[in-house]
Amino acid sequence: MSDLVERARIYATQAHQRIGQLRKYSKQPYHVHLEAVAKQVAGVTDDEEMIAAAWLHDTVEDTPATLEDIEAHFGTAVAELVEELTDVSKPSDGNRATRKAIDRDHTAQASLRAKTVKLADLIDNCRDITKHDERFAKVYLVEMGALLDVLGEGDAQLFQEAVRVYALSMEKLGFPGAGQKESEVLKPDSIGLAGFDDRHFKRMFMELFTARDIAEGLLSFDSGYDREAVRKALTHHRQEVASVRVKGTVQGYLRLSDVSEAGEGNDTFRNFTVDQVLPGSAPLADVIHVLTRHDYCFITVLGDIAGVICRDDINKPMVRMWLFGIVTMIEMGMVQLIEERFPDESWQGVISEGRLGKAQDIQAERQRRNQYCSLIDCLQLSDKAQILINDELSLAQLGFDSKATAKRGVRELESLRNHLAHAQDIVMHDWAQIARMTRRMEEITRG
To answer: In the 8-state DSSP scheme, what is residue 247?
Structure first.
């Protein structure tokens, strides 16, 4: 194994381990899937950049790592492959079918090398999903068929294997005849908002704040800039990035690290990628989506790039308030689901005496202050979650396939809420949960 591939293996494995990511059905460590994809690619090529990208293909989508991190650790060529393998659709682009069509178009434009890695990814995922989840497989196979239409330029051997696995899976599931609607077969991948069905309210809340509300202005310099002058200006204004103009039009950007050494004028700058530029009116969920892929999200005003958002801006009070609102709506959804599943406060029979006693003490104190509240409102978030986790039907409605997965999700949600409440750095501690939660909220509100 080359040094590049070994470093990619270690980096990807550790990145997925840090967020506790497991394979959905087998509960195996996530690197089992990455290894399977890498082995498929290594079986048809000795291109170490392709094999490294196979190990890293989910890192940007699933972990806090960005494409810039990948470039810094593994070079431009590997980062470009990972970018081609990373979905570009945003939550606001529409429902799953719409987003998958956008991602398919992105894949169609990918290099032959990236398409080969994608074929290996499809093969392993198809086998796993068909084996463990026939309902979702009926949706996945439709999407896989559409992808195969644009992957024919990938490695011929892997393409034939992908077609074979696809055909066997179709036969196993009895296609044609799988007629469920998407909404009937898809499960959420994190804590949902079960029971809280006021979609209009949630949609309005998700659009309450926009990218322009948290964007910072960009310093701008003409190409041929003096490196030392730019460095001093960025340092003085405490900014990490500036835009670069070519003949009066912003064409790219540079970072403080790019001009850390003094020198003469320099025309070098970084190009904007399509998926890191948003209009100022874009919802915050789209901003978070961009920042899962890139260090910077650039904002346009009247069509011109004029602002920038980095991950640290997610710590701003406005965003923290927005995230706390989402957590509150999740908790409201839990209460409503408990009331539906356990009428007449029958939930009291499935909670420990100690936790029930604490809730009763809180209720008594509030009543002493002449504050009306129901007993369930006096439960802690973890108590409400525990009631639902121990009920199989509620567990399924929350979108979890096991109690262990649900408990981990609740711990992450509590961590985010506590860090929000105590002014802690949520980007450092809770980025993966923030990304999953906002993506799930967008999916629910858009249907």
So the answer is: T
Closest CA to 71 of 58, 83, 55, 87: 83
Q: Quick check: bond before 91 cis, omega within 30?
A: no
pLDDT tens digits, one per residue of 272-286: 988 899 999 999 999
Helix (H), strand (E) at residue 356:
helix 353-368
Sign of the CA dihedral with 1 first, then 73, 16, and 127 last: negative
pLDDT of residue 193: 45
Q: Are 169 and 137 in contact (CB under 8 A)?
A: yes
- Tell whether the model's pLDDT for residue 200 goes beyond 80: no
Domains annotated for the chain, with CATH where assigned, are: 3-185 (1.10.3210.10), 211-312 (3.10.580.10), 317-446 (no CATH)
What are the start-end ranges of the H helices in 1-75?
3-18, 31-42, 48-56, 59-62, 67-74
What pLDDT is recorded for position 134?
87
Residue of 61, 71, 134, 189 marked active site: 61
Q: Among this protein's residues, is 264 annotated catalytic?
A: no
pLDDT tens digit sequence for 319-360 = 999 999 888 888 888 888 898 889 888 999 888 999 999 999
- Tokens at 157, concatenated: 């051997």
Alpha helices in 149-273 (DSSP H): 156-173, 182-185, 199-206, 211-214, 227-236
- The sign one gets for the Cα dihedral 12, 18, 21, 22 is positive
313 included as an active-site residue: no
Query: What residue has token string 């501690």?
Result: 429
Choose the catalytic residue: 49, 58, 62, 443: 62
Secondary structure letter of residue 38 according to DSSP? H
pLDDT at 181 over 60: no
Residue 76 has pLDDT above 70, yes or no: yes
Residues making up the chain, counted from first to last: 447
Helix (H) or strand (E) holding 310: strand 304-310
